[in-house]
Amino acid sequence: MKMTRRQNLALIGAAAATTALPGAGAAQEDGTVHVVEMLTRDPETGENQVFKPALLRAQPGDTVRFVSEQPGHNSQSNDDLIPEGGETWEGRINQEVEVTLETEGTYPYYCLPHQTAGMVGLILVGDFTSNYEAAKEGRFRGRARQRYEDLFAQADEIRAEEGL
Ligand SMILES: [Cu+2]
């Protein structure tokens, strides 16, 4: 299997879509596109069944694109734990899926076949505190519990750093 990374050509496309008027500041209204890889094995760390990066800091209007780097995975929102009125998504296996997150909050998500193997992730959008504690109290099984402990520990640091 080739280890070459997919280049993020889509970012170029997104930037090109903006018709910028001088001084209009339009670029500030266009969200960033974040790419998350779905991996059976991370070639850098050797970790199995991971989203990379598993913790993402985003702002309202940003888009998250989940790319199928290795076969057998999907990404879907944990609809019991996302913020009120938050965006949901559900990709099929091997399908690239993307979501634009307009609603601030904490978004846990997972890979359906590998959730208990620990293939879970977390997206923090804007002021993500509205449902943060509730999401943190979510009941996670198997390896997912350990992974979420790690991810929320990192998220706690972000909260502290940003004074949220
Ligand atoms: Cu998976």
Quick gist of this model?
This protein has 164 residues and is α/β, with parallel strands linked by helices. The chain has one domain (30-162): Cupredoxins -  blue copper proteins (Immunoglobulin-like, Sandwich), CATH 2.60.40.
Identify low-pLDDT runs.
1-28
Main pleated sheet: 4 strands, mixed
Please, what is the CATH homologous superfamily? Cupredoxins -  blue copper proteins
What's the total number of strands? 8
Broad CATH class: Mainly Beta
Question: What is the beta-strand fraction?
Answer: 25-35%
* End-to-end gap: 43 Å
Q: Under CATH, the topology is which?
A: Immunoglobulin-like
Helix share, percent = 10-25%
Number of helices: 3
Order of helices and strands: HEEEEEEEEHH
CATH architecture annotation: Sandwich
Task: Tell me the overall shape.
Answer: globular
Gyration radius (Cα, Å) is 16 Å
Strand order of the largest sheet: 2-1-4-6
* Count of distinct structural domains: 1
The secondary structure category is alpha/beta
Overview of the structural elements:
With 164 residues, the chain is α/β, with parallel strands linked by helices. The protein has one domain (30-162): Immunoglobulin-like. The protein is built from three helices and eight strands. The N and C termini lie far apart (43 Å). Residues 1-28 have low confidence and may be disordered. Copper (II) ion binds next to loops.
